């Protein structure tokens, strides 16, 4: 049985390290202005980007560079220089959307694999074959694809690797090429500057073209204004089917602009699901619980297991963002101190989330305790003492003081609490 690679987003160097610690087999990231996430690309310098590639390889994992924007003529020469610069860092693959950029990458860096972006909208084996013959070793199929159709592509092209999105935000246009942001704000989504206009609230009007009379349409107060807001994709419940199909080479999580906790929790949940499915121990409720702790727009399983005309639940008309079941309160990057992300108060219990297979020591000190309760680990502070020795009764996000942990935790551990 083919066990798919787990591919996680790396929005910056810290998120990259978190994704790898929490079980990713590979990460994808970008630098400069040639990807569809220019905001995350700005969080890397060339130096930290090269460090990220080196760190990933030292972990025995893979690093893919996203160069999937659609360039204009004036960008071709800078793009050539970018390809030369990044190829010298020895990433494992380039993620590219267009035939022209594919050809350019093959000319400049013939030894680096080409992965075709979902932006190319491959939905059948004819298109897949053409791109494969052009040099793509892997294709990220369109999100509209069914698993049945993906199986057909693999049957026709057994040497072509296939990657699918399994989790994350969904574009209103699904596989991209959306122009709403460009029309409304001049921000080109196909060049990495999407303003997320589909998430906005809209008022609807009806106009009589003969009289010019304009009527505002009355709407259900519970919804109707978020007319283009797609729910987030979550295929966590279907990982067993995906693994058993034997045709998926890589399961990809969207989210380079999401939080550190998102990078950790989504990676951790899908790592557990893939490993358990491969060993015949799949328990969907366990993974669904973890995914539901994340902020989201509501979840849909998209079209991989259902045809588009069968679906009526892929949009959230009520809200552009919903809270998950848990609030993240702190992160510890080094295992010795925490940085507050929401609020930490003495004498309150916080659940510890740490990388899979990490060892959490239980114990007590003058600062607090770590204990096991029904298979989950919890931390409770007796007092909050900063690195500089300052004592707090409570600490909130925005306070830069790092607080000493009572017992050392695994690196990149989080403290969270369930909403009541």
Report on this structure:
The protein is of the alpha/beta class and 420 residues long. The chain has eleven helices and 24 strands. The chain has helices at 13-21, 38-41, 46-58, 76-87, 99-108, 125-134, 147-156, 180-185, 239-245, 260-278, 284-291, and strands at 5-9, 26-29, 62-67, 93-96, 113-116, 136-140, 161-168, 205-207, 214-216, 232-234, 250-253, 299-300, 326-332, 337-340, 343-345, 349-353, 363-365, 368-373, 376-381, 384-385, 391-392, 394-396, 403-404, 413-418. The strands form five sheets. The chain has an eight-stranded parallel barrel, surrounded by five helices. Strands 17-18-19-16-24-13-14-23 form an eight-stranded antiparallel β-sheet, with no helix packed on it.
Low-confidence stretches: none
Number of helices: 11
Overall average residue pLDDT: 90
User: Span from first to last CA?
Assistant: 42 Å
CATH class of the largest domain: Alpha Beta
Sum up the overall morphology in one term: globular
Query: What's the number of structural domains?
Result: 2
Give me the count of strands: 24
CATH superfamily of the largest domain: Aldolase class I
> Considering DSSP H and I runs of 4 or more, what fraction of the residues is helical?
25-40%
In the CATH hierarchy, the architecture of the largest domain is Alpha-Beta Barrel
Strand residue content: 15-25%
User: Which secondary-structure class do the elements indicate?
Assistant: alpha/beta
Rg, Cα atoms, Å: 23 Å
CATH topology of the largest domain: TIM Barrel
Main beta sheet: 8 strands, parallel, barrel
């Amino acid at each position: 049985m083919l066990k798919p690679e787990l591919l996680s987003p790396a929005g910056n160097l810290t998120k990259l390290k978190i994704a790898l610690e929490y079980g990713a087999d590979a990460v994808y990231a970008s630098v400069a202005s040639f990807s569809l996430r220019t905001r995350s690309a700005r969080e890397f310098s060339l130096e930290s980007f090269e460090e990220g590639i080196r760190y990933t390889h030292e972990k025995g994992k893979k690093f893919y560079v996203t160069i999937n924007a659609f360039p204009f003529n004036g960008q071709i020469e800078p793009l050539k220089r970018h390809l030369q610069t990044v190829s010298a860092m020895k990433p494992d693959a380039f993620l590219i959307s267009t035939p022209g950029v594919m050809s350019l990458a093959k000319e400049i860096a013939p030894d680096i694999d080409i992965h075709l972006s979902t932006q190319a909208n491959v939905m059948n084996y004819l298109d897949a074959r053409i791109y494969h013959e052009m040099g793509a070793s892997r294709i990220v199929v369109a999100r509209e694809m069914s698993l049945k159709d993906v199986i057909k592509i693999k049957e026709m092209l057994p040497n072509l690797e296939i990657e699918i999105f399994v989790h994350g935000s969904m574009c209103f246009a699904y596989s991209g090429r959306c122009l709403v942001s460009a029309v409304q704000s001049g921000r080109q989504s196909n060049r990495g500057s999407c303003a997320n206009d589909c998430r906005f609230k809209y008022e609807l009007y009806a106009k009589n073209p003969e009289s010019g009379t304009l009527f505002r349409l009355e709407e259900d107060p519970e919804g109707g204004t978020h007319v283009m807001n797609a729910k987030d994709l979550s295929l966590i419940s279907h990982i067993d089917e995906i693994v058993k199909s034997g045709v998926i080479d890589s399961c990809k999580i969207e989210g380079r602009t999401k939080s550190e906790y998102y990078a950790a929790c989504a990676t951790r949940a899908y790592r557990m699901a893939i490993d358990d499915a491969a060993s015949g121990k799949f328990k969907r409720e366990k993974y669904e619980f973890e995914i539901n702790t994340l902020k989201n727009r509501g979840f849909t399983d998209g079209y991989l297991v259902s045809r588009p005309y069968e679906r009526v639940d892929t949009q959230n008309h009520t809200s552009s963002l919903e809270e998950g079941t848990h609030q993240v309160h702190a992160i510890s990057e080094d295992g010795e101190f925490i940085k507050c992300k929401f609020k930490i108060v003495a004498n309150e219990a916080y659940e510890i989330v740490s990388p899979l297979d990490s060892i959490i020591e239980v114990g007590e000190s003058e600062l607090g305790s770590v204990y096991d309760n029904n298979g989950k680990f919890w931390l409770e502070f007796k007092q909050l003492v900063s690195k500089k020795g300052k004592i707090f009764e409570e600490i909130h996000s925005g306070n830069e003081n790092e607080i000493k942990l009572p017992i050392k935790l695994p690196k990149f551990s989080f403290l969270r609490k369930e909403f009541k």
